[in-house]
Design goal:
The structure holds 2 protein chains of 2 kinds.
Chain A: E1 2-6, E2 22-24, H1 29-39, H2 44-47, E3 58-62, E4 65-66, E5 82-87
Parallel strand pairs in A: 1-5
Antiparallel strand pairs in A: 1-2, 3-4, 3-5
Chain B: E1 4-9, E2 12-19, E3 22-29, E4 35-40, E5 47-53, E6 57-63, E7 71-72, E8 83-86, E9 101-104, E10 109-115, E11 121-126, E12 130-133, E13 141-142, H1 144-147, E14 170-171, E15 178-179, E16 181-187, E17 195-200, E18 203-207, E19 215-216, E20 239-242, E21 250-254, E22 257-261, E23 269-270, E24 281-286, E25 294-298, H2 301-304, E26 314-317, E27 325-327, E28 345-348, E29 351-355, E30 361-364, E31 372-375, E32 381-386
The chains are: A alpha+beta, B mainly beta.
Chain lengths: 92, 387
């Protein structure tokens, strides 16, 4: 049961997630995204493109480590993991 | 004539209403988000916006309450297996890479919107896909005959194609994405199965059968940048518009000048008048009744892309491009370096409006004879439509 934290930027599109403790049963990052999609339909296409790849300016951390597999999102998530999804610091 | 101007900007969607006190902008939605295009579906009254979130990708947004609230619409996605030919920059691993190779398509940009028969909505994208809805926007489908067109290498869904594409790219974002883009979609008001599209950079294509087949429509276009200026493909059709009342009159502000067609884009004639400043630019507007009248907002050469000599003017022809006037009344004539992008000049009856990447918005009530300033501090403006 990973504890998932989202950048507040996403709450303007998915207000139902704001203030909610997101605990998702997941063994990989892909399963975290699937779990989020069940709560907030459409969020996958915000985080990933239509090929399922993490968007270029989206970052996911497991603990303090940035995920490696941005294509298949296969990085392992432990039951005690803290997963943080944020926008990269880019743009103007 | 419409009393509302729809303005897409780098930082949100603005609606500008004509009130007794004058044209009045208000931020309608998408604060902080990049908006490429906003338009109203004349069949339903719904507003549609093509967004390009910097982090979260391209999204379609819809308002059914005249811009009071906006919601995500059905999202446009390239189907699995959609590929296009592109040339990658050489890398340390592939220093001689130069041959176009198939790339998986994902939406890089939703660039323009158009409406045809009731419930028909068209979306032009980068990397060069035309998406069509026939159910009012509930579902969108990639037009495969255009995607698989021989001019861009053939069917890459089921084959490796012929390996040759005549469709070059245009910047899709500041992040370096570069691929072909559909920037104009024109539905013939007489027959909605007839659609013209403009592509940066390929040229114009037409379908006469509702999208089952497409043909190039580039005869007479001349480019300044290829070894063969009369090449069939490779034309940078910045903006293409037709006359609603005389749809065989089609106009194009091209990278290499202004072109006019009086035969439905079967043949084009270059009508630029560089000595009057009318040559390079992005947008073009065509009179709704008179196919010989058009307006452009020229820029100084493709190398500088800003107002000519610090003074902003609109070019107008009323005789099919034989002569051009410079309309300057009410526009800044000192220290003005605005550039007006391809979708940022709109027309409704005798009214015209245009916006610049400097955040300036101007309106004319008299066919461009005189202009008034609506706003000076909007975010960079990408699209101006009446609706």
């Amino acid at each position: 049961m990973a504890k998932v934290e989202l950048t507040k930027h996403l709450f303007q599109f998915f207000p139902q997630l704001e203030g909610k403790e997101l605990v998702i049963e997941a063994a990989t990052v892909a399963e975290v995204v699937r779990g989020l999609e069940a709560i907030a339909p459409g969020i996958t296409f915000y985080l990933c493109d239509e090929r399922g790849r993490l968007r270029q300016h989206v970052n996911v951390f497991i603990g303090e480590d940035q995920v490696i597999d941005r294509r298949d999102l296969s990085d392992r998530v432990e039951a005690s993991s803290r997963v943080v999804i944020m926008q990269a610091l880019s743009g103007g | 004539m419409s009393d509302c101007i729809l303005v897409a900007t780098r930082k949100g969607t603005f609606l500008v209403d004509k009130l007794k006190s004058g044209w009045t902008p208000r931020l309608s939605g998408h604060p902080g988000a990049l908006v490429n295009f906003v338009a109203r579906d004349p069949n339903t009254g719904s507003l549609w916006a093509a967004l390009g979130h910097g982090h979260w990708g391209a999204k379609l947004s819809r308002s059914t309450d005249d811009g009071k609230s906006w919601n995500d619409a059905t999202q446009i996605k390239y189907p699995a297996g959609a590929r296009y030919l592109g040339t990658a920059m050489p890398t340390e691993d592939s220093p001689t890479l130069g041959k176009p190779t198939p790339r998986e398509a994902t939406v890089l940009k939703l660039w323009c919107l158009a409406f045809g028969a009731p419930s028909h909505i068209y979306v032009g994208t980068i990397p060069g896909g035309l998406f069509v809805s026939r159910d009012g926007g509930e579902t969108f489908e990639l037009n495969r005959p255009l995607w698989n067109h021989e001019s861009r290498g053939g069917d890459l869904f089921t084959t490796e194609g012929n390996g040759v594409t005549h469709w070059s790219g245009t910047p899709a974002s500041d992040a370096g994405d570069f691929a072909p883009g559909i920037c104009s979609i024109l539905v013939d008001p007489r027959k909605s199965d007839r659609v013209l599209i403009g592509v940066s950079t390929a040229g114009v294509l037409a379908t006469e059968d509702g999208g089952k087949s497409w043909q190039g429509r580039n005869k007479g276009l001349l480019n300044d940048y290829l070894p063969n200026p009369e090449a069939e493909w490779g034309h940078d059709a910045h903006a293409t518009e037709l006359c609603k009342g005389q749809p065989d009159h089609v106009w194009q502000q091209n990278h290499s000048g202004v072109f006019h067609s009086s035969d439905g884009a079967s043949t084009w004639k270059k009508v630029s008048e560089p000595e009057r400043g009318v040559h390079f630019g992005f947008p073009i507007a065509v009179d709704e009744k008179d196919g010989n009248t058009a307006w452009v907002v020229p820029g100084k050469s493709d190398q500088q892309r800003m107002a000519i000599d610090g003074g902003l003017f609109v070019g107008r022809t009323q005789d099919g491009g034989k002569n051009w006037e410079q309309l300057r009344a009410g526009l800044p004539q000192k220290n003005a370096y605005d550039v007006v992008l391809r979708h940022a000049l709109g027309i409704s009856g005798n009214r015209l409006a245009f916006g610049s990447t400097t955040g300036n918005l101007y309106v004319s009530e008299d066919r461009g004879e005189s202009w008034s300033t609506v706003a000076n501090n909007l975010p960079p403006i990408y699209s101006v439509r009446f609706g």
